Amino acid sequence: AEAAAEKLRLYRRDPGGWRGCRSTGEVAVSWRPSTEFAGNLYKGEGILPASPRDVWECIKPVAGGLRTKWDQNVKDFEVIEVLSDTISVCRTTTPSAFMRIISPREFVDVVVMKQYEDGTMLSAATNVEHPLCPPRPNFVRGFNYPCGCLCVPVPG
């Protein structure tokens, strides 16, 4: 979990190589080739007219949180094991897609939540196997490389 958090901090500090691919008035999505796997990294950025604390309440990875209410790609989120006050093992399930052509997925990750001195809040995760969370029938087990969300305060 700590390695995933550090990887996200490195992505944030290294602005090089990102290429814009989609943009609306609210969100800009960029990509760049990954150095870890055969594929691309993606990041979405936007500024919301809300306090960082309010935004964090919407995105933080906790059981019973708001993410399952607004994010159509997150069907369920459950904590499998709490390892410390900031680290846990979690399972996230996604619904089927494209008229059920794509099967529902489940992801088991070790997740860390942090707050930094500048007010930035971070959740970072990466794939893990856990004995209390074997693959379930009717789900495809997904694999996450280091990933997460950053909530960064901006002036004003």
From TrEMBL:
GO terms for molecular function: cholesterol binding; cholesterol transfer activity. The keyword Transport applies. One of its GO terms (biological process) is cholesterol import. Gene3D superfamilies: 3.30.530.20. SUPFAM superfamilies: Bet v1-like. Residues 1-156 form the START domain. This is STAR5 protein. It comes from Onychorhynchus coronatus. The lineage of its organism: Eukaryota, Metazoa, Chordata, Craniata, Vertebrata. The gene is Stard5.
